[in-house]
């Protein structure tokens, strides 16, 4: 199957995830506004406090919806992408098959979240190690040091690329349903780093599409919310007061409109993250997953890399422990 067909056939998962994101965003925006308006008659301080409380509640609701309602759709999409890439075909109803695959592979949500936590821990710990090396070589000791800035940029780039390790490892778990899920997770991580030169070819595409997505989609959302939020009188009045009360590091006042810009950037990033994660990220993942699966079957996991990754990552060692005694190359029990 072509990448575009796999993406199209699995798009319903993205739409359902987007619905979850929209519901979460509605709460994120509505609760602070409701709090602000409801307490506006008690003074600006009370209204601002109510808005902050509403914002916190909105964040909680958004996280809960994204975590406990959206996980099925993300996992199901990854399962079908992996199957389409590996087998060259998908069931007639890929949406139903994806949901069934998740139910069969993960009896409870806790197993899924445990695997995602482990894969993210592996990528985060390796990113931290690489950043430490970069900082040591460059003598980076503070954010004003060019080497520190370079290390920060490298960290962002590495994090973006390695995020796909999480999805590819999960895809590998779905492709090996007769094997312990944690064992497959370890195999998936080994495959990723064992074939890093081959998979690195996707890095440029990943970064380029992410940058274009941020500039185009994120920029459009920023402009939209700058116009909308900038036209709300009570809100701009409060933000102007915050501008007047804030100072820069040298003691000078912040430029007028700074708080409005910061607020618009935050809201734009939230919306961009939802759109990018639902539509652009899966498109990139199909290409990354294809290279990953091809490399995995052509170059199976090597035993010696398990020890090396275990030494680099506590998350990997945790997965090995959960996989059981046969983790380093043997077959585990089905999860």
Describe this structure in words.
- The protein is mainly alpha-helical and 335 residues long.
- The protein has helices at residues 3-9, 11-38, 44-68, 71-87, 94-105, 109-138, 146-175, 181-194, 196-199, 203-229, 233-245, 258-298, 303-312, 314-323.
What string, H for helix and E for strand, traces the elements in order? Answer: HHHHHHHHHHHHHH
Inertia-based shape: globular
Largest sheet: none
Give the termini separation. 29 Å
Protein structure class:
mainly alpha
Task: Bin the strand percentage.
Answer: under 5%
Helix content: over 70%
Radius of gyration over all CA atoms, rounded: 23 Å
- Mean pLDDT across every amino acid position: 81
Number of helices: 14
Overall number of strands:
0
Poorly predicted runs are 325-335
List keywords for this structure.
335 residues; mainly alpha; 80% helix; single chain; 14 helices; globular; disordered C terminus
Short description:
The chain has 335 residues and is mainly alpha-helical. Helix content is 80%, strand content 0%. The longest helix is centred in the C-terminal third of the chain and has 41 residues, at 258-298.
Q: Topology of this protein?
A:
Blueprint: H1 3-9, H2 11-38, H3 44-68, H4 71-87, H5 94-105, H6 109-138, H7 146-175, H8 181-194, H9 196-199, H10 203-229, H11 233-245, H12 258-298, H13 303-312, H14 314-323
Helix pairs in contact: 1-12, 2-3, 2-4, 2-12, 4-5, 4-7, 4-12, 6-7, 6-14, 7-8, 7-12, 8-14, 10-12, 13-14
């Amino acid at each position: 199957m072509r990448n575009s067909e796999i993406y199209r056939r699995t798009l319903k998962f993205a739409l359902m995830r987007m619905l979850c994101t929209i519901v979460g965003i509605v709460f994120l925006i509505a609760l602070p506004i409701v709090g602000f308006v409801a307490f506006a008659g008690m003074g600006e301080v009370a209204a601002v406090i109510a808005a902050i409380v509403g914002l916190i509640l909105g964040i909680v609701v958004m996280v809960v919806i994204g975590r406990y309602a959206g996980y099925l759709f993300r996992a199901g999409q990854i399962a079908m992408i992996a199957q389409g890439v590996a087998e060259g075909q998908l069931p007639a109803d890929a949406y139903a098959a994806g949901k069934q695959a998740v139910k069969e592979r993960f009896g409870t949500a806790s197993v899924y979240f445990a695997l995602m936590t482990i894969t993210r821990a592996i990528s985060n710990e390796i990113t931290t190690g690489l950043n430490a090396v970069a900082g040591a070589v460059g003598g980076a000791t503070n954010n004003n040091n060019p080497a520190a800035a370079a290390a920060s940029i490298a960290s962002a780039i590495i994090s973006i690329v390695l995020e796909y390790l999480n999805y590819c490892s999960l895809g590998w778990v779905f492709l090996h349903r007769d094997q312990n899920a944690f064992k497959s997770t370890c195999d998936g991580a080994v495959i990723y780093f064992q074939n890093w030169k081959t998979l690195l070819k996707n890095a440029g595409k990943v970064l380029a599409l992410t940058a274009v997505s941020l500039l185009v989609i994120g920029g459009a959302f920023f402009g939209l919310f700058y116009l909308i939020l900038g036209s709300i009188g009570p809100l701009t009045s409060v933000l102007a007061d915050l501008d007047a009360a804030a100072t820069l590091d040298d003691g000078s006042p912040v430029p007028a409109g700074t708080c409005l810009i910061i607020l618009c950037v935050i809201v734009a990033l939230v919306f961009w993250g939802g759109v990018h994660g639902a539509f652009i990220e899966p498109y990139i993942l199909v290409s990354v997953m294809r290279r990953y699966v091809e490399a995995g079957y052509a170059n199976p996991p090597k035993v010696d890399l398990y020890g090396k990754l275990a030494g680099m990552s506590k998350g990997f060692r945790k997965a090995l422990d959960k996989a059981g005694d046969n983790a380093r190359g043997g077959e585990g029990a089905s999860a």
